[in-house]
Every structure is written in C-alpha cells, then in structure tokens.
Design goal:
Elements (H helix, E strand, L loop, with lengths): L1 H26 L4 E4 L5 E4 L6 E3 L2 H9 L6 E4 L23 H6 L4 E4 L6 H6 L4 E3 L5 H14 L6 H16 L9 E7 L3 E2 L5 H9 L2 E2 L13 H7 L3 E5 L16 H4 L3 E4 L1 H7 L6 H16 L4
Parallel strand pairs: 3-4, 3-5, 5-6, 7-9, 7-10, 10-11
Antiparallel strand pairs: 1-2, 7-8
Helix pairs in contact: 6-11
Length: 299
C-alpha cells in the first residue's frame, strides 16, 4: 500500500508540474480587445487560429512575430517570407475576393484601413482588423496591435530590432551624406516618398535631405517639373524606370542624372523599400548603400 501511495503521490506531482508548465499557454486564452485604425473594437476570447492578411506588410509582421502558421490566405502581393507564397491568394486591397476569403473560414481578416470589402466582410460575420502603417510610429503601433492579436508577450522586441537596424545603417554613413538632396520615386505616376512617410523618415535618419515638401503629404503624386526645379543630387527609383528617366522633359539637366547618381532598385529591393514592416532595417541598408555609391562619384 505504501508503495502504491508513493506512486500515486509521484503521479500527482507530475500532473501538477505539467499543469504549471501549461499555465503560460492557458493565460493566452485571457480575453483581450484591440481597437483598429478605424476605431472598431475587436474582442476575442482566444488567439485566432485562422488569419487572412490582405496587406503584405501585415503578412510580414505576423510572420516576423512567429505566427506564419496561423495564416490561411494572403493577398496577391504577399511574397515574403517564402512560405506564404504557398497559401491561397484572395485578391488585393482594392479587389478582395470576398467569396474566397469567407471560404477559408478565417477567425479574423487583417487589412489596410483603406482597403475595400471591409463592410461586406463584416456583414457576412467575418471579423476584420484594419491597420495601415504609414510612418515609423505607425509601424511600432501596428506591431503592438498584432502582438496583442497573437498574444505575444513582448511583440515590441521586433520594433527594437528594426529600430536598431536603421540606426546601424545610419551610423555606417559619413557626415558628407547630410549634404545630399534626394528624390525617391515609389511609383511611375510619379508618386514620391515625402518626409512624412516611413520611407522619408528612414532617409532622414540616414542624414540625407528629401527634396519633397512635407506639406505635399506622405506619398504625393507630383509634377515631374518639381524634380527638375529641385535638382536632386541623388535619385532612388525602381529598376523599371531606368530607361525613361533621362527621357523625361528637362530631366537630362538634373544633377543626379548628369553625374549618374541614380540608384535603380530591382523589384525585390523595391518591395523591401515600400513595405512598412519587419524588413525596414534592410530597406535602410539598401538606401545607405545607394548613398555610399553615389558619394563615391562626387569629386
């Protein structure tokens, strides 16, 4: 009997230890609430198991937080990390495939606040979290909200890593960068990256000057003549524009084009630069490399 009693006691201790080990997991079931960028509050009793993302930067952030396995569908532009390319694609922000999204039975859909389809999804009983990072502060905030959604205890460690990476890229540049006036084109319309955008903020942290006026907004559509008048020392632009830049009226006289201080980024690098998420430090390094290369061409 004593032997049986000891065995039972050991068994109870094992069970208690197992319970204590599982306690942190159980705490993840604590109800939580998140207010999105449109002021809508999402309440949940548990971590969502099935998530659809309609914005590449949100997809990347969820994966960087360690929850790629919870994604069951993404927009057509989400392509990093590689594993998300195997997921069903459900359209884009302006043309989401509502039927395909509903068929995936998501616990929540994360999308940009400017995306379409939000009201229709809500009417069909699909919970939506609208988040749209446009600045460094926004990125930090969105990381926090997605961390809450996934019940990550220290989601901000991701922001600290991003922030440290941007600072490291800046510290690697010489003081001469501060004299460089830069034009960054994010779309051939043309749309520029203004000082108020996350791209413009990264440029400022690198020490260079943005030729776009803050008053024009984060990503303004501009008149090409503005660039001619501003006469930037450096131009950063997607590789698809490499043939047409010098052919634009008046652009042949721009200092950056005359000195060949133009960085043509291939598609992979362009995507990194325009996505406000976990690869922003990599984007800062790409921009820093451009500045170093163009500085080397100066007399």
């Amino acid at each position: 009997m004593n032997k049986s009693l000891r065995q039972m006691q050991r068994w109870m201790l094992v069970c208690l230890a197992a319970f204590n080990l599982c306690a942190p997991v159980a705490s993840k079931a604590t109800p939580f609430e998140i207010e999105d960028d449109l002021g809508t509050k999402l309440r949940s009793e548990k971590v969502p198991e099935r998530v659809v993302s309609l914005l590449p930067s949100l997809t990347e952030t969820i994966c960087a937080l360690g929850h790629c396995n919870r994604l069951v569908g993404v927009d057509r532009y989400s392509n990093w990390p590689q594993q998300v390319t195997k997921l069903p694609q459900v359209g884009g922000g302006i043309d989401p495939n509502i039927e395909a999204i509903v068929a995936l039975r998501p616990d929540v859909v994360v999308m940009a606040s400017s995306s379409r389809g939000r009201d229709r999804l809500a009417a069909l009983g699909v919970r939506v979290l609208a988040l749209e990072p446009k600045t460094h502060t926004d990125v930090q905030r969105v990381i926090g909200k997605l961390g809450t959604l996934m019940q990550e205890q220290d989601a901000q460690r991701l922001w600290r890593t991003i922030d440290a990476g941007v600072s490291a890229a800046a510290q690697a540049l010489p003081a001469a960068v501060r004299k460089q006036r830069v034009y960054i084109e994010v779309n051939r319309a043309p749309y520029a990256a203004g000082p108020g955008s996350f791209v413009g903020e990264t440029l400022a942290r690198l020490g260079a000057q943005n030729i776009i006026d803050t008053k024009l907004g984060p990503f303004p559509k501009i008149n090409p003549e503005l660039v001619v008048r501003a006469n930037p020392d450096v131009i950063m632009v997607g590789d698809t524009e490499s043939v047409s830049l010098a052919q634009r009226p008046g652009w042949g006289s721009i200092a950056a084009i005359r000195s060949q201080s133009v960085c043509y980024f291939p598609r992979e690098q362009s995507e990194v630069l325009v996505r406000p998420g976990p690869r922003m430090a990599e984007g800062a390094r790409i921009m820093a490399d451009c500045l170093l290369k163009t500085l080397a061409k100066k007399p």
